[in-house]
Backbone:
């Protein structure tokens, strides 16, 4: 199965020109998954062939037990490389394939999860980009859309969910029931879903919609706690998108299912699957609530961008992901309480995009994709947050009303079909009256980030714009803020609109104490202040009057840290100074995250403890405000260094969450009491407390603890994929550099097999477990060499090389 062929774009074009798929009837049998791992399916595909007598193939990366084409058996010799050859097609054909997938413990396509707290079994599917073929036979490409009728036989006490909702459920028989779901609208093969298990269910009628929330039984109380907020945001999102796109979501039922051992979330039409890490075990912070709303609205946006209108091929993945990433922030800012989400986006997602765009692995937002293996490597910070940032710039360029009008025309013309970049821009040009050919080429089909710099020529300022690698700059619509400083604050005197079309743009601006480039954060560019005002940004960022302006100042200094233009100490001073004055909930947590990231991974060994201690002191100051206490104490638990700080942490760590975080810090410092870890694991009501215990033990700075953790995390993959980034942070602690050196070799040895288990595991292992400490430039060279070896998947190769670029930047910063 591991040798399944990757579908090429040429093969997809040829098959789409030959076939029209009329429908899929999928019968799934889950009764064997209660005690074992066998996912059985019979796929009946009705399709037309435009050239009778021709041949093609159907995808099936499962064990084929029986197959017939138009009633005639298909021999086993026709099955190879995850494909079944089809010959002698007639004008109208019926293909029936019965298959069994036994590899259901890897999180790829079909997954069986067991809740260790109660032994309950849960099953989910997820198919993007081409894993539907692992569950059942199909023509697994996005432009062969068809209705799906899904029927599932499952253990009698299970609930089964799929896209169309409202199933007909049979009476129990032999310990099982059958759930027959109505036909879906025409869908691409990666969108159907089956979620099943003894799920806890909540439902709410909101307007015209019947909304459902589901989670495993052991998380029932936590889902109940947050259900009203989830229902409210779901209803608000459906209303907002339906009105703004002039196309209401057409199905009455909309379900969201939080499943164990899932990673992220997946936009299955009408039945979104989430990782149940989003069912927060403790009452969530403001930014955690905002993140959950962001994910909810991102997946919901896919009902339009991806499900109703789908890209034709993976070169237009941005039509799905860039738009969903933009739309979720746009809708949250306009339809929920999370009005500051774009500022959080600037601090988090956008900085990841800037860093990815600096790496040698960067690529255009829209690029040629040769096959589905290459497609998997483009689910990244370029396609997501850079794409969203570029769309935000496009909105500024053409105007929001015209942009939305163009989207409405796009949906009207292509609903339930497939579309391309050209289709979208034809509508946008039509409503805006602007020729967008140059904009499209420079922004979507060219990689890299423009540099915008304020320069003084005599008594006047000019904006200098340089494109990637010294090329002509892209067109930019932005604003420049003029700020007057008085005592310990700045006030905005004017915000001047500027349109950049050439290398130099003269500016007719009055004098100001601080001139802030890209005020309001409308464009995607690496910005630089006048050299004479850099110290003002570092020392007085927190005195700017708005959260966006403050964050723009801090992230400008962060960007300069990543390029070696300022020292880590300067950035930490800038961030902590801003934190002590910050008044916006959406900003405090991401600002703390950036400060800790700098202190832990970008600082020289000689100053790390001093910087972490300064962040810890900032946390103690913030914790005096009850609204900031939870966030501040969580960060204190990562940075407490002095005996006094550790003592205060011990006094204030009263919740299970904070107690685990304190134990992790003590473990890193070699001060943890194993008995205290065992006791908390028994006491914690979180059914996944065992994972917290694994991570505490992983943080211990001993060879034995690191070896045991490596076996559990990488070799055995005991921790769910959704927790692997947190696991990586626990394992690669900066203070344990000497102990960790041998594990860079272990990581290098594991790279060729990281793709086993599918796209999610490939990403979380290659990135989350990347050796960020205990390494030097020679290890970076070896990592890069390994990533380029034959047999390393495209996704893993790209992920490793991207992290190597970041590592080289960190090593330079650590040298001071």
Residues:
């Amino acid at each position: 199965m591991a040798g399944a062929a990757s579908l090429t774009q040429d093969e997809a074009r040829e098959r789409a020109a030959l076939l029209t798929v009329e429908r899929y009837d999928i019968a799934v049998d889950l009764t064997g998954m209660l005690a074992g791992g066998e996912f059985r399916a019979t796929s009946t595909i009705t399709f037309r062939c435009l050239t009778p007598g021709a041949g093609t193939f159907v995808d099936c990366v499962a064990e084929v037990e029986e197959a017939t084409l138009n009633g005639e058996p298909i021999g086993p010799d026709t099955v190879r490389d995850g494909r079944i050859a089809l010959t002698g097609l007639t004008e109208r054909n019926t293909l029936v394939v019965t298959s069994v997938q036994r590899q259901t413990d890897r999180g790829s396509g079909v997954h069986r999860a067991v809740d260790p707290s109660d032994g309950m079994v849960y099953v989910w599917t997820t198919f993007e980009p081409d894993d539907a073929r692992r569950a059942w036979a199909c023509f697994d490409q996005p432009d062969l859309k068809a209705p799906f009728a899904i029927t599932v036989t499952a253990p009698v006490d299970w609930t089964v969910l799929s896209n169309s909702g409202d199933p007909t459920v049979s009476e129990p028989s032999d310990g099982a029931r059958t759930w027959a779901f109505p036909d879906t609208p025409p869908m691409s093969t990666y969108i159907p879903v089956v979620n099943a298990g003894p799920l806890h269910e909540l439902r709410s009628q909101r307007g015209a919609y019947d909304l459902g929330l589901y989670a495993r039984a052991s998380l029932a109380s936590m889902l109940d706690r947050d259900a009203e907020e989830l229902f409210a945001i779901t209803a608000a999102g459906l209303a907002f998108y339906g009105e703004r796109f002039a196309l209401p979501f057409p199905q009455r039922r909309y379900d969201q299912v939080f499943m164990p051992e899932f990673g992220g979330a997946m936009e299955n039409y009408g039945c979104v699957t989430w990782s149940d890490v989003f069912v927060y075990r403790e009452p969530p912070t403001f930014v955690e609530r905002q993140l959950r709303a962001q994910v909810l609205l991102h997946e919901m946006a896919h009902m339009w961008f991806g499900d109703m209108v789908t890209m034709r091929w993976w070169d237009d993945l941005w039509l799905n992901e860039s738009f969903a990433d933009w739309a979720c922030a746009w809708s949250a800012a306009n339809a929920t309480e999370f009005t500051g989400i774009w500022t959080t986006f600037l601090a988090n997602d956008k900085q990841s995009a800037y860093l990815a765009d600096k790496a040698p692995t960067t690529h255009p937002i829209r690029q040629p994709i040769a096959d589905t293996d290459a497609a998997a490597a483009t689910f990244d910070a370029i396609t997501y947050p850079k794409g969203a940032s570029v769309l935000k710039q496009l909105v500024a360029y053409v105007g929001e009303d015209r942009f939305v009008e163009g989207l409405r025309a796009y949906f009207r013309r292509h609903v339930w079909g497939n579309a391309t970049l050209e289709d979208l821009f034809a509508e946008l040009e039509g409503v805006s009256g602007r020729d967008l050919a140059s904009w499209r080429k420079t922004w979507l089909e060219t990689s890299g980030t423009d540099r915008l710099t304020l320069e003084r020529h005599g008594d006047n300022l000019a904006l200098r714009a340089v494109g990637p690698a010294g090329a002509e700059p892209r067109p930019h619509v932005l604003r420049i803020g003029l700020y007057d400083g008085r005592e310990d604050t700045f006030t905005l005197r004017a915000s001047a609109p500027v349109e950049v079309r050439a290398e130099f743009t003269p500016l007719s601006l009055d004098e100001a104490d601080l001139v802030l480039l890209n005020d309001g954060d409308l464009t995607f560019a690496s910005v630089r202040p006048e050299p004479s005002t850099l110290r003002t940004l570092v020392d007085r960022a927190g005195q700017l009057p708005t959260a966006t302006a403050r964050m723009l100042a801090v992230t400008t200094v962060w960007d300069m840290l990543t390029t070696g233009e300022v020292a880590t100490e300067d950035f930490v001073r800038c961030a902590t100074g801003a934190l002590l004055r910050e008044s916006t909930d959406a900003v405090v947590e991401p600002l703390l995250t950036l400060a800790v990231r700098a202190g832990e991974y970008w600082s020289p060994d000689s100053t790390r403890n001093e910087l972490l201690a300064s962040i810890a002191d900032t946390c103690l100051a913030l914790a005096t405000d009850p609204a900031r206490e939870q966030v501040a104490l969580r960060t204190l638990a990562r940075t407490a260094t002095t005996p006094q700080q550790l003592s205060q942490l011990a006094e204030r760590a009263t919740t299970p969450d904070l107690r685990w975080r304190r134990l992790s810090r003590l473990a890193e410092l070699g001060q943890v009491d194993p008995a205290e870890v065992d006791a908390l694991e028994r006491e914690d009501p979180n059914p996944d407390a065992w994972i917290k215990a694994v991570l505490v033990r992983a943080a211990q700075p001993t060879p034995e603890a690191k070896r045991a953790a490596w076996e559990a995390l990488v070799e055995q993959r005991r921790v769910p994929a959704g927790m692997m980034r947190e696991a990586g942070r626990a394992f690669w602690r900066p203070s344990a550099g000497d102990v960790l050196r041998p594990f860079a070799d272990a990581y290098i040895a594991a790279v060729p097999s990281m793709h086993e288990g599918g796209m999610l595991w490939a990403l979380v292992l290659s990135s989350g477990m990347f050796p960020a400490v205990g390494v030097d430039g020679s290890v970076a060279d070896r990592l890069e060499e390994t990533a380029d070896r034959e047999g390393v998947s495209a996704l893993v190769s790209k992920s490793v090389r991207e992290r190597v670029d970041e590592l080289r930047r960190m090593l330079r910063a650590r040298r001071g």
Notes: The domain at 310-444 is CATH 1.10.390.10 (Neutral Protease; domain 2). The two ends are 49 Å apart (CA to CA). The chain has five domains: 1-196, 198-285, 310-444, 450-523+525-621, 701-816. The longest strand covers residues 489-500.
